[in-house]
Amino acid sequence: MNRSVVILGVQWGDEGKGKIVDLMTRHSKYVVRYQGGDNAGHTIFLNEKKLVLHTIPSGILYEGVLNLIANGVMISLKSLSEELESLESHGIDAENRLAISGSCFLVLPHHVAIDRARERREGSKIGTTLRGMGPAYEDKVARRGLKLSDIFHVKYFQKRLKEIIDFHNFHLVHYYHSSSIDYQKTLEETLYNSKRILKIVKDVSEILHKAHKRSEPVIYEGAQGAMLDIDQGTYPYVTSSNTTSGGVSLGSGIGPKRCIGHVLGVVKAYSTRVGLGPFPTEINGPIGKYLRKRGMEYGSTTGRPRRVGWIDILMIKKSIECNSISSFCLTKLDVLDGVETIKICVSYQNKQGKRIYTIPSSSEDWKNIEPIYEILPGWKRSLYKTRDYCLLPKEAISYVNRIEELTGISVCIISTGPSREDSIIIKNPFHR
Ligand code: IMP
């Protein structure tokens, strides 16, 4: 029996996956990150104290649950060490609840320097988190990346690092007119920061293979969102990994039939995105400001204000198809409290007045479309911390039902506040 649940973002990330993974971890034995790196910011609460995780899976608060960082994740050793220390300062025994694959590739200072240099240029600006993700994944695909396990072979590591830094320094200095990266300093810092991490290197795929063979419950935790997927998202304004469910298999080393059981798509009750790129339902006026303030829509990694918009059914449908979504978790429904009328984008229209029901492929096509909305009444009452479906006002239920009708997917969890308890579980994805 397949008892895995993939929990991933349906929109552009920041849907509130951290809280949902934390909520569901009580039903699981393993929580696995399989893509992205410290560009992610997953917020969880420990006794009302806010913790932001970047690379460590969101099951880390639970004793007896093994949190795994699988091969598809990019590792910044410094940032991971700091995250471990920060969790320990809150009394969480993180090191003993964590294992990391030696096959993870490293994010090194030259990756961050290239990311920064590109973001300074108008022509190549994406609005990245400046964590070096793009250049690190590029090195992997170009077959010049360095893996965590390469550090066990110090001589080899030193030699390759020197060659790679020389290569990138040429571009940094001569093309980007930036400062070069110091090899010796990078080597020393990398070896120093690796000390703790190397102790928890394990064969993560093997652990997972065995867990699946025993039919143990596993959560695969996505980072970013489907529309930021390098293949399926709003390219080029995307991240550099596969954020959709196909990435689970490649990023963990487990065959798709084993690792992809139930796919729980986390949808925010409105939309947000950070960075540049198409956003047809973006709200620029006072309602946008209202939602940003109420939803505290500021990047957990960068602090940037998030762009805010209405929900977009076309995007969600695309996401359902490319992820094989089984059910939805609708988050931040309470943020819409007090909004007089709520819009749902049900199609696009191009400049010639033609209706469009699928999302465009070229970044140029996005410029020619505008959203067509269905309008629903809002509700006056506060939904904040509502924990019972029967207590939702009829307008909120109509909104949830309309999303279900338009997408053909049932909402099985509704989130009405930041803590675990502020949730309405209609059907538990582990009980199927
Ligand atoms: P990168 O992943 O830092 O290269 O950034 C590429 C794009 O993905 C930018 O638009 C970022 O704002 C966005 N992005 C990356 N990570 C996250 C995330 O965790 N939440 C939301 N957006 C993200």
How would you explain this protein's 3D organization?
- The chain is an alpha/beta fold and 432 residues long.
- The chain has 3 domains: 4-101 and 201-263, Adenylosuccinate Synthetase, subunit A, domain 1 (Adenylosuccinate Synthetase, Chain A, domain 1); 105-196, Adenylosuccinate Synthetase, subunit A, domain 2; 268-425, Adenylosuccinate Synthetase, Chain A, domain 3.
- It has helices at residues 17-24, 77-89, 109-119, 133-141, 154-175, 183-198, 204-213, 246-252, 256-259, 286-294, 313-323, 394-407; strands spanning 4-9, 30-33, 42-46, 49-53, 66-69, 74-75, 98-101, 105-106, 201-202, 218-225, 262-268, 271-273, 307-309, 311-312, 327-331, 341-350, 355-356, 369-377, 411-415, 423-425.
- The protein has a 10-stranded mixed beta sheet, with helices on both faces. Strands 14, 16, 17 and 18 form a 4-stranded mixed beta sheet that branches.
- Helix 2 crosses helix 6 (183-198) and helix 3 (109-119) crosses helix 4.
- The model has no long low-confidence stretch (mean pLDDT 96).
- It binds inosinic acid (IMP).
Secondary structure layout plus pairing:
Blueprint: E1 4-9, H1 17-24, E2 30-33, E3 42-46, E4 49-53, E5 66-69, E6 74-75, H2 77-89, E7 98-101, E8 105-106, H3 109-119, H4 133-141, H5 154-175, H6 183-198, E9 201-202, H7 204-213, E10 218-225, H8 246-252, H9 256-259, E11 262-268, E12 271-273, H10 286-294, E13 307-309, E14 311-312, H11 313-323, E15 327-331, E16 341-350, E17 355-356, E18 369-377, H12 394-407, E19 411-415, E20 423-425
Helix pairs in contact: 2-6, 3-4, 3-5
The structure holds inosinic acid.
